[in-house]
Specification:
Number of helices: 21
Largest sheet: 5 strands, mixed
Structural class: alpha/beta
Distance between the termini: 28 Å
Number of domains: 3
Strand order of the largest sheet: 2-1-3-11-4
Number of strands: 13
Strand content: 5-15%
Shape: globular
């Protein structure tokens, strides 16, 4: 889940030495250059073409305030293309035509581009022209190596470096209104969650404005099926998100995670929730827009999702003053014998990121652009915005003014699109909790700032559970060892291989059979599950397990040799 968000950057010269000598009242842009400031660069206007295997509905063609300043600082503007459907289609077409943009964020298709010889080795460019990128990755630069046989760098990972997760944005969500009416009950297991929904729904079938209440809905109609339906089966049964696999922490053996018997019981619980009328029957056919509209209406009591998937709708509820219809987060497990591993450290997650292609018109200019985004100046711009507009400096500390914070929290989509703050995370970046030379955090996600963003409903809920943040309910990352393989979801399998074909077949079977099992009558569940397991076996799931086991062991060797 962490992964999923889903960071990186650009602006203002930070005068570390002057801040250190007490010149805290001067603006950051007035201070002398930091060590990462480059000599006079070529600012001749240039357009970089960029293609990404993600959607980006808020992309502003660099016409926002931050976007324009990036262009002013670098001379670079970006013409972007974002994938709207399957993230492999856009790159398959490029390979077929042997035509590529300057930059790509190819996700799972990066292997296909490598096989086609489309990506250039960035190591020489980094050594010659990218001191900020080299500084940012630091000791993790060796994790950027492509393979045990090829130590070239073809991808600059966008996973933040030295990330500390201060927020618990996943888990199971319940409206504050539900918790308040029920006296803030214990919410530790799926049964606790179910009981809370049932107790409230038994008393309230409609909202104050007459809309039919939905106890629980899942975002299972499109690709978020993975986030809202299947990933929770892993998390609630004591494992961390590895994409579609479970990895034995001792032997590094990979297993298609649906083969775990514990997960069968999680899906049996969802079947039970459907049977007793607490699960929205449209959960597996609704479009994303329908899902979002239900949440924005304030009539959905519970969710099982990541907060980034419904952040805009929560912002809309806040804007309308419906803060009791927003959500608290809980680390729900199947039963109390399991412990959630959401915050177990992956170490630095090299893998998915941005690449320069062989078609790049000026690779040196492109790497220098990315190096600016990786600089202290660039990181402040992307994360905080423009001094005097989006933040100010008081006594040496960056502060977001109340009016700007209100816009950022309660009208987040409009804020991001207008200002461009948090919109240009295109390359290497520092993680939450990392401080710049001035002693300020590079990002705006740190405990003191997060507390400022809580609503009154959040504060009441947190006080009732005697915690300062929702993360306090989760097991600490200190309870778990770092995973030497990182995370399997960012390990790429060879495109076009037999195992990759099997993988796709198995995923198709999962979507069909899991949906069928949840919506079936309880007495039919076991038979459907047995057929599900047989289908996976017939499709070659054991061969798939063997292939991913090898990939995991190769990753451990590459990163730890």
């Amino acid at each position: 889940m962490k992964a999923s968000r889903t960071r990186a950057a650009s602006l203002l010269i930070i005068g570390a030495l002057l801040v250190g000598t007490g010149c805290s009242d001067r603006s950051e842009s007035d201070r002398s250059s930091s060590p990462d400031a480059s000599p006079k660069e070529d600012l001749t206007p240039m357009t970089i073409t960029f293609a990404a295997g993600d959607i980006h509905p808020l992309w502003d063609d660099m016409q926002s305030e931050v976007g324009k300043l990036i262009t002013e600082k670098t001379g670079i503007s970006i013409k972007a293309q974002f994938q709207s459907g399957n993230d492999t289609d856009i790159f398959a077409l490029m390979v077929a035509n042997n035509e590529y943009p300057d930059l790509v964020s190819a996700k799972g298709s990066v292997g296909k581009l490598m096989d086609a010889g489309a990506l250039i080795d960035l190591r020489p460019l980094i050594e010659a022209h990218a001191p900020n990128i080299k500084k940012l990755y630091g000791e993790y630069i060796k994790r950027l190596r492509w393979s045990n046989d090829d130590h070239g760098i073809y991808v600059l990972p966008t996973a933040p470096v030295n990330q500390t997760y201060f927020k618990a944005g996943g888990g199971f969500e319940l409206q504050h209104a539900v918790l308040k009416e029920l006296g803030y009950p214990q919410i530790k297991t799926v049964k606790d969650f179910e009981n809370a929904l049932k107790a409230y729904y038994d008393k309230h079938k409609t909202t104050a404005d007459g809309q039919a209440i939905i106890p629980l809905t899942l975002n299972g109609g499109e690709w978020q099926f993975l986030i809202s339906v299947t990933n929770p089966a892993v998390a609630t049964t004591g494992a961390q998100d590895e994409g579609e696999f479970y990895i034995d922490p001792v032997t590094y053996e990979a297993k298609f995670h649906y083969l775990r018997p514990e997960e069968k019981e999680y899906f049996r619980w969802l079947n039970h929730m459907h049977d007793i009328g607490l699960l929205d029957p449209e959960s597996f056919v609704q479009k994303y827009g329908q899902y979002r509209a239900k949440i924005a209406s304030g009539r959905v009591l519970g969710l099982i999702d990541a907060d980034w998937d419904f952040a805009g709708e929560v912002a809309a509820l806040k804007k309308e003053g419906k803060i009791d219809q927003t959500y608290a987060h809980f680390p729900v497990t199947l039963n109390e014998s399991f412990k959630r591993h959401d915050f177990q450290s992956t170490g630095y997650l090299a893998g998915i990121g941005i690449s320069i292609t062989k078609s790049a018109k000026d690779p040196v200019r492109v790497i220098k652009f990315l190096d600016f985004l990786a600089s202290d100046e660039g990181q402040v711009l992307v994360n905080w915005g423009i001094e005097g507009k989006h933040y100010k400096v008081e006594n040496g500390k960056r502060i977001i003014p109340d009016d700007i914070l209100n816009m950022k929290v309660n009208d987040s989509r409009n804020f991001r699109k207008t200002t461009g703050v948090d919109m240009y995370r295109m390359g290497p970046s520092y993680g939450d909790g990392v401080k710049d030379p001035t002693g300020n955090y590079y990002t705006t996600d740190f405990p003191e700032q997060i507390e400022k963003e809580y609503t009154q409903a959040d504060r009441e809920t947190l006080a009732a559970y005697n915690i300062k943040s929702y993360k306090d309910l989760w097991p600490s990352e200190k309870e778990f060892p770092d995973k030497p393989w990182g995370a399997v979801w960012n390990i790429n399998m060879e495109t076009g291989s037999e195992e990759n074909v099997i993988f796709q077949q198995c995923k198709d079977i999962v979507k069909k059979r899991i949906t069928q099992a949840i919506l079936a009558k309880p007495e039919q569940f076991d038979a459907i599950w047995d057929d599900f397991m047989k289908e996976l076996e017939k499709a070659g799931v054991e061969k798939l397990n063997e292939a991913f086991t090898k990939l995991v062991k190769d990753r451990v060797k590459l990163w730890n040799e």
